Structures are given as structure tokens and as C-alpha cells.
Amino acid sequence: GLQTPDRGTKYSCRHISLDPSSLAYWNWSWDEIVSYDLLVMFNYVFSQTEQKINYVGHSLGTLIALASFLEGKLVSQLKSAALLSPIAYLSHMNTKLGVVVAKSFVGE
């Protein structure tokens, strides 16, 4: 198995040109993870193993997987997907920030 070094985790802090203490390092959204990061990770694993991938995603990992699969990306390299605690609906957010985000979410 491979645990991916998703943006914002302690495993992703060795960027080649940006420092985690700079604002530029944090200037990203889950759209970039969908468009770039997950694609690169799938391509790397597939090129190393030449086998279809069994994907396990938790929370944000489910959101980026669903967005990628919906766009038709990665499906040819996918064998199965287990989506744990998926972020599928934002309407149940109850914190002030969560309510603002859920109401302004363009995807719904």
C-alpha cells in the first residue's frame, strides 16, 4: 500500500521551491489535488506496478476521488475504490464557517 503525501500534511512539507511558512505554499484548493496531485499519484503507482489500483480514500480523499472519477480521469487505472467517511453533501455543516462554505459551494 501507498499512503499519499497530500497537500497540507506533514508528509508534503518538502516542496522543491516553496516553504510551508509562506502564503504561496498554502495557495491551493482541492481542485488542484483533483487536477494534478491524484493524477500524478495514480500514474506513478500504475507505471511502477502495471496493475490497476485499489483506492482507499477517507474524507477529503473521497472528495478528490469522486471528482476525478466523475470527470472520467483515472477510471482506466482503477480496479476498486473504498470511500470512507465521504464528503458528499455540505448541507449538514453546522459551524458558522461550515454554513458559509456550504451555502457558497458552487458544485451543488
UniProtKB/TrEMBL annotation:
InterPro entries: AB_hydrolase_fold. It comes from the Eukaryota. PANTHER family: LYSOSOMAL ACID LIPASE-RELATED. This is Triacylglycerol lipase 2. It comes from Glycine soja (Wild soybean).
